[in-house]
# Entry
Amino acid sequence: MRPVSLDQISGNEVLAQALYDLDGRKLLNAGVSLRPAIVEKLYEKGISVIYINDKLSEGIQVNGLLCEETKTRAKCIVREEMQRLSQAKELNYSNVSGVVDSILDEILSRRIDIMNVKDIRMQDEQIFAHSVNVCVMAIALATKLSLPIMKIKNIAMGALMHDLGKAFIAPSILNKSDLTKEEMIELKKHPVIGYNMVKEDNETTAITKIAILMHHEHFNGSGYPMGLAGDKIHYSARILTICNEFDAAINDPKNSNFLQTTDAVEYLIGASGHIFDKAMVDEFIKIVPVYSEGSIVLLSDGTMAIVVHNNPINLTRPVVRVFYSTKKKSRYKNPYIIDLQDELSIKILREVKPNLKDILR
Ligand SMILES: [Fe+2]
# Structure
């Protein structure tokens, strides 16, 4: 299994994972051939990347952190609560709490070495899927930071609800990528709106409320709504800021800063100590794979390889399967495995997106 951009699909590829809509209905079965009409439908849904099964990616597994059922239920609850807020100005706390417990159970029941945070999502579920992914990442990071379970739960609640204030922002602004100054001012109101919606709620904890309010604050004071800096920003919000911006960078193609995971990790490192809390970024990058499984990389010896699996101890040196020599311009009849953690004379130069139709001919 490997991820492929829709614009690289030639028509003979086979879908590796079933696709579901926001209500959990199956849109496409795993194993279906990606004919042009199907690819067209995927474009219409706003999907830009999908997973395929092919000879090159044989034996490679890419697993998300949540099962499909929990993920769908969580997305539905975020949607329901946003609707409830905008219509009745109230929140069903037990709905949110119940699904956060399910997410926590699922994530904490396995040891998190590395989290696959690349998400396949449709445009109409972007905001809900984003909230769920931020929640998953926040739990993983808070766990890595050795926070007690009750604090992790409160941060997870804030993560799932962090953008609830967007229920009161016009969809024309939410769905636009190039915002005017006035529209940006409007969008930036959502943390305060979200906070105001929960601040009188007795069941919502102070940590959760503050996480919602401060999730766009930046470590150097350049964020909003209050322009707080350093430790003045609550630690729960410092966790959310990292997860929020990282998910937007790698999973929202409408985002003007849409990046490959490698570039997004570099951005986090470059901005640590300025935008983000450095100690937290240091822990975050230990659990995010720089090169996701199934991605294609160029190696320093002039060969091309596919990432088979990551080494939790060193995320820049995964196990790869070499299939092509760029020097000889020929594919290897018998691709071979290299564990880059052992083979220190070779390094990954960068992730590439070659035209495999020509290469593998
Ligand atoms: Fe936000």
About this structure: The pocket of fe (ii) ion is lined by residues 162-163, 190, 215-216 (CB under 6 Å). Residues 269 and 282 are 8 Å apart (CA to CA). The two ends are 19 Å apart (CA to CA).
